[in-house]
Design goal:
mainly alpha, 2 domains
């Protein structure tokens, strides 16, 4: 690509950024509970998109495609955080219990606060299933797990959520 071709491409990328950045940031901010983390992941999303786009490896830059990149960045973050936390739990001799699934209506603010307290692997499966409204097989594919292990993870995550939610004074009906 010569210099004269690069200018229109940069302008096109800049135009997409101006339109999509607020939506990508809102998506991440609603799911991660931290302004700093949402900003960091939004930046990483656009860096990844620009790199892919410059190598002609990305589909056309659209808001849905960028949201998918953002979702993957968030999941990657939770995986890295979860790996570190699981390592600490194993060192401390901790374990995770299985319980039954649940369905209910809950207080949104309290739910987001509780989500921030949960381990990253629980957060990621709950967000994908209930906030992003993905099916269990789609969650499994996104998390690179089997459907059966995703169902088990989801049951444990719901139990951890319920326990933490009720400790904060909320009641799941």
């Amino acid at each position: 690509m010569n210099v004269s071709e690069a200018a229109p491409d940069r302008q096109r990328l800049s135009d997409v950024y101006d339109i999509a950045m607020p939506e990508v940031y809102r998506y991440l901010r609603a799911r991660c509970g931290s302004v700093e983390l949402a900003q960091e992941l939004t930046s990483a999303t656009f860096v990844q998109a620009a790199l892919s786009w410059s190598r002609d490896q990305a589909p056309p830059l659209t808001v849905p495609w960028l949201i998918t990149v953002a979702r993957n960045k968030l999941i990657d973050h939770w995986r890295r955080q979860g790996l570190a936390e699981r390592s600490l739990t194993l060192l401390e001799g901790g374990r995770i219990d299985d319980v039954d699934p649940w369905d209910t209506v809950i207080d949104s603010e309290r739910a987001h606060a509780v989500l921030r307290e949960l381990p990253p692997h629980y957060r990621s499966v709950l967000v994908l299933r209930y906030l992003d409204d993905l099916s269990v097989p789609d969650c499994a594919e996104t998390l690179k797990r089997s459907v059966r292990s995703t169902e088990s993870l989801l049951a444990r995550a719901r139990n951890a959520f319920r326990t933490t939610y009720e400790k904060t004074g909320g009641h799941i009906v």
